[in-house]
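[SOLVED] Need 3D model of a four-part complex

Original post:
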Amino acid sequence: MKNVIQEKNVKIPLYVTVYETICQWLKDGKYKPGDKLPGENVLAEQFQVSRGTLRQAMLLLQEDGLIGNHQGKGNIVLSNQDLQRNGLEKVGNPIVDFCVEPIDRVVTTIGFQPPTQKHQEVLKLRPSSIVAVIDITYFHQDSPVGFAMVYMPHEFLDKGNVDLEDMDSVYAFYMKLLSSGSLYSDTRLRIVHARERLAEILAIPEGDPLLILEEELYTEYDTPVLSHKMYMGADLYEISLKRKSK
Amino acid sequence: MKNVIQEKNVKIPLYVTVYETICQWLKDGKYKPGDKLPGENVLAEQFQVSRGTLRQAMLLLQEDGLIGNHQGKGNIVLSNQDLQRNGLEKVGNPIVDFCVEPIDRVVTTIGFQPPTQKHQEVLKLRPSSIVAVIDITYFHQDSPVGFAMVYMPHEFLDKGNVDLEDMDSVYAFYMKLLSSGSLYSDTRLRIVHARERLAEILAIPEGDPLLILEEELYTEYDTPVLSHKMYMGADLYEISLKRKSK
DNA sequence: TCGTATTTGTACGTATGTATT
DNA sequence: AAATACATACGTACAAATACG
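Solution:
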């Protein structure tokens, strides 16, 4: 299997450059929310591309929630100012992205163990394989705000050439996975109450509520990459997202 | 302005019928997770459509997370039989969709008031307009499990021809809005602690944690439709979603 | 290892349908 | 009613990634 987090190709399709150009227009305020973009034929002419190619760019803009397409009316700019921040529906690291305070320090530890029954299922592992267990505590100004338990097949770390003695590089690998794109997830959100160990780690009273996010990440090939649980302090997190419907 | 929840056109594009046919194939198990679909040229031939049209159907399948597209390899079926249930990232009614117990009764009340400063902003209303305040309590076996406060411009209810004396029809209108499609949202999730009134409504001790979802819904024209807050009992809710990235 | 066939990705062009102005 | 603008659909050609002998 190829390295999951390989770099992307440098070759950029035409419709992507068109998309990026129009994104920049919107960022620069060349067209403001409520404005109508020039007609597709006009734009295609300007960019010297076919209308089909231009429409691929429009599709990307629409998926980003930057424009709305309306037959007979035109492509209208939506209120895009606040779209900078990614919502929960985009893969990233929620425990970092949604803390109301900035995360300024993380403490990472790593251990290894045979897969539990559950991990054999969700990570599709043989009983003879090895699972890396990565515990990460997230701090803001020396106060713990969140805690994550990450379960990853050792195989992935191995193929990623990660120095297992260097916690910074382990954490960097994990973050790179989360932001690598081309991953999708099964995600569950619940409220739990802090028990002994968690209460101690997060320095909160036992029984205090926590937001927990449980998740499995897969490649586009449907290969499990990792499973993790994130515990987020109740008062320190506000999770935002964009919901949509066809 | 046109009625937001108007029925869709009856005319169905070719690529949608192709998409629906292949969806059915997957549901029937004609192709199982891991299988490769026939090549696009073959499928286009079978459906008697051009390859471009067929590729539009493939795009829909991919957006649903049902298949993965891979240059040179093929279109592979993913293991998403369980995608029947919509995740939070799709607009619907979370307070109904994610309760671990089935909701078997709702109690709806309605009142009217001038818009607060905040509603003037988020719903883009004039101070002289009227806001409908709809309170909805959700029950499972006569126990309250969730509570929602909905703020909607009176104008919408009026144009929707809703009988404001008939609570069932008010609730039906609200649910129809949520499932009408063509809406998108700004959504925030947090933990709050039940205060007096909420604790009483949900029949829980004061101070107990609740999951709260605050949201504004907009049409594709960027017109605010409604703003609501949903309070969900801590132990009764598990919210699932599908995260993705390009 | 290398070349060839297969398969999807990109890009172009044209024509017609349908909703809005 | 006519003009405008996006939506759908067809066709062709070549590029790029992968699979296979």
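Edit: Chain A touches chain B through 46 residues (CB under 8 Å).
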